[in-house]
Amino acid sequence: MTPTPHPLRIKQMKITLDGETLLAMDQYIAPGEVLTVMGPSGSGKSTLLAYLAGFLSPAFQAQGELYLGDKRLDTLPAERRGIGLLFQDPMLFPHLSVAGNLRFGLPHRAKNKRQQVSLALEQVGLAGFETRDPATLSGGQQARVALMRLLLSQPRAVLLDEPFSKLDTALRQEMRTLVFGQLREAGLPTLLVTHDEADANAAGGTIIVLG
Question: Tens digits of per-residue pLDDT, 20-37?
Answer without folding.
Answer: 999 999 999 999 999 999
